[in-house]
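Sync notes, pocket subgroup
Present: LS, DG
LS reminded everyone that the earlier model was apo-only. Rerun requested with magnesium ion included. Inputs:
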Amino acid sequence: MREPSAPPAGLRAWASDPQRSRGRRHVEAPAPTRNDFQRDRDRIVHSTAFRRLVYKTQVFLNHEGDLFRTRLTHSLEVAQIARSVARTMRLNEDLCEAIALAHDLGHTPFGHAGQDALDERLRQADPESMGFEHNFQSLRVVDMLEERYPAFDGLNLTFESREGILKHCSRRRALALEHDEPGGVGRRFLDRTQPSLEAQVCNLADEIAYNAHDIDDGVRSGLLVYEELLDLPLVARFHAKALQHAPSLGGKRLLYETLRRMLSALAHDLIDTSTELLEAHAPLSADAARQGLPLIAFSVGMGAELRGVNAFLRSALYRHQQVVRTTEGAKRVVRELFDAYLAQPDQLPAEHACRSPLQQTVVDYIAGMTDRFALSEHRRLTGAAIDLGTGNSA
Ligand code: MG
């Protein structure tokens, strides 16, 4: 254990401090030039799972266009927002960056369609299974699935980065985690306490990022009609401000200027509301800030408006006929991949074939795939080429 010290220069008393980290599961000597959270971030950036994010779907499948967000660009946008909120609030920017860059490492190919299909197959294969959840899978990636270091599996990140990555957790899963790691990252879901303030910032930075960029991608793809978005008070307000500032603005510059203003306003609202909450509660340390209610929040009005945007995106974009069609094809690819590997485990690469039980090995392997590798493996194993536009065999 290291001696507690004053918070790093310039940070608030409630900011996470790498000097007071609860440490790594495998003890390592400190790095000479980087603190522990910077080292976590660097390990994440150098991981295989991080590189694969570039070929994983956010909403639009990777092959549908080169200009849409992928999991990688989404993660970079979340990191940018989280870091700038943290810097302004004098929280730990390095920890925010590490959590944001790792938060989606466990996503399957084809976004939520892949997750749903893996979850369904895993539960069918083993009724006792807790199923598949991308957030928990992100923790598996950094705790066990990356194979880079001689002395341990995974990236051996600090408790604070791991805690931030595990955003949700069922009670049953938390009990299992607590059993394996008493007082570890599962504990707070049993105690109903909060993660670090930096983790809370990342969660809300994620919401800001995806709501803003899904509007952008949705409009540019032609699936959303910009004018329909003006029924949303949040969008309408910044659309009006953009035009007030530049009356002749139109087309994609009007879209970008509206979204830019909306994104800034969301970040500023988050900073102002959270700063007020923190000043009022004045927790004495990062640990004290974990007790009780979340202290990072949007104002009530802004939170409601953002939920309005999200509800609109859910019905107009995520459930758009064209997105749903690709979803059906993607689910079929993942289901059939699962069935094929389970029936012929010798088709798994040798280094993956040794983990047990087999269905978990198969799930970990498929979850790690990029969209295009999943499609090519599916074709190799089943002989069928699925057209993701229709979900049918081409
Ligand atoms: Mg995300």
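DG: The first helix runs from residue 36 to 45.
LS: The beta strands are 386-387, 392-393.
Action: DG to write up.
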